[in-house]
Amino acid sequence: MCFYSMSYYKAPRRYSNGRNFGVETHQGFAADIVPRRPYGNRMNKGPNKWSRNLVWTASDDNMPRKNGSTYGSTKPQGSGTSANVSEQQMKNAAHGQRGSSVSDTRRWGSNDKGSPKSKECVCKFWKAGNCKKGDQCSFLHSWTSLPGMVMVAALEGHKKDLKGIALPQGSDKLFSASSDGTLKIWDCHTGQCAHTINLQAEAGSLMSEGPWVFLGLPNAVKAFNVQTSKDLHLNGVVGQVRAMTVGNGMLFVGTSSGSISVWKATNSESDPFTYLTSLEGHHSGEVTCFIVGGQQLYSGSVDKTIKVWDLNTLECTTTLRQHTDTVTSLLCWDQYLISSSLDGTIKVWACSENGSLKVTNTRRQGQSVHTLSGITDAEDKPIVFCSYENGTVSICDLPSFEERGKMFFSTNTVGTITIGPDGLLFTGDKSGKLRVWSLAGTKV
């Protein structure tokens, strides 16, 4: 596999028209989070059977396969813990290799408040949408029909829809951001909220890469390192940040204005991110989602298109126009691109004979599809989680899309799904509820 050398990178022409893009240091954000639990005395539990995400394999020149090729799967490789996001770490992310090693002191214990009292008894009033007891109800409200999967914690506190859930490497804290203007930090030992930070602005996106947590705000991105407590403010973003991803040594930030801002990760402790450029004039509407596969970046938008970008040149090479409504989520798996949309479809893309991306399979769901998340299970079989408007999440095998089971969330649409280590899954819905699930069927 050939990685692009950042040392020979020549920045493309800027589209910022002279705007002053900089990095400012703010200590208030860090002061709200530290002190943290120490990271010492970790135990080696052995390899994790559950991979964190589906990956884009290295064969076929890192491009989607041609029609008729056989589906397959591959395992991601964990990355080591570091105080900085290095160029190589972000390059690895281009191939789905996000680190899954975390502090082994993190647990969701049996004393978690909000844990279901029964695996079998589902509240019939909740299913009908009119249970008045809420969290005091002795029967299940959120549940799943997938064998071996249980809900282990219900984390309450956000008032509006969750925009992101992050479990940074080397931390025993879970981060969640909501459009209610708060960032919450949860203790993984107790399931309790350790800190609530009033952002004084709407959070639009949240993600982590290595020890870094990235928070998308109006016209800015917060970057916080959980190991060093370094706290940065990336200026110059135009519009509310709605999507973020990393790949090939770069941070990509998509906004409500349709622009994509790009920063390069460095090995400098004092200046870990350097602004490169702003990709403007391509999407005519809000950028809603990203995925990196091989040497390409894929961006989805409310303008109904998917843009394909070359990570080496940052040029837009292709525009995909098969969806008829907002593109909501993107996933790369085994040389295939999978996309979902408010038009009620999930599309599978592959390379045609002439090298262009073509739809090879369209799954019509009959309702809006809001997010996709993929993993390989304990038997190395790929499965995908598909969230729908009616508050359900289908769990399907790939490539058949045969349904294994479902997750039920009443009428609250799940807008974010984050795969954690050791069989953990985190879901956030439009009402602000955050749920922790164990895919292995046991509490971790």
UniProtKB/TrEMBL annotation:
Q: Where are the zinc fingers (C3H1-type)?
A: 122-144
Span of domain C3H1-type: 122-144
Q: Does the keyword Zinc-finger apply?
A: yes
The record's keywords, sorted A to Z, are: Metal-binding, Repeat, WD repeat, Zinc, Zinc-finger
Region Disordered, residue ranges: 59-118
Which is an annotated Pfam family here?
Answer: WD40
**Single GO molecular-function term?**
zinc ion binding
Source taxon at top rank? Eukaryota
Q: Which SMART domains does its entry note?
A: WD40, ZnF_C3H1
Compositionally biased residues, Polar residues: 67-91
Give the matching InterPro entries: WD40/YVTN_repeat-like_dom_sf (IPR015943), WD40_PAC1 (IPR020472), WD40_repeat_CS (IPR019775), WD40_repeat_dom_sf (IPR036322), WD40_rpt (IPR001680), WDR86-like (IPR044715), Znf_CCCH (IPR000571), Znf_CCCH_sf (IPR036855)
Name the record gives this protein? Zinc finger CCCH domain-containing protein 59-like isoform X2
Taxonomic lineage is: Eukaryota, Viridiplantae, Streptophyta, Embryophyta, Tracheophyta
